[in-house]
Amino acid sequence: MDQPDANSERQRAALRELEGLGRERDLLHGLFARASGYFSAVDADNSDPIERWGRRIGRALGAVAFVGFCAYLYFTYVR
Question: CA spacing 20 to 30 A to 13: which of 5, 23, 27, 67?
């Protein structure tokens, strides 16, 4: 008979912990977003062509850097 009560108490404790973690995540995300000047893609102004091209160029450079880093690791450690 104790088993269902123990499981429900554990479940309530886990849910409280998840809610607390969610609040901490929201707080930290807000602090870092304001401190770094970072804006999400939702906040971006899609009508500005310079911003659109800058985002495209940045993503392309990031992809090239990622492929280059993977090639470096492959040729350094696997080959």
Answer: 27
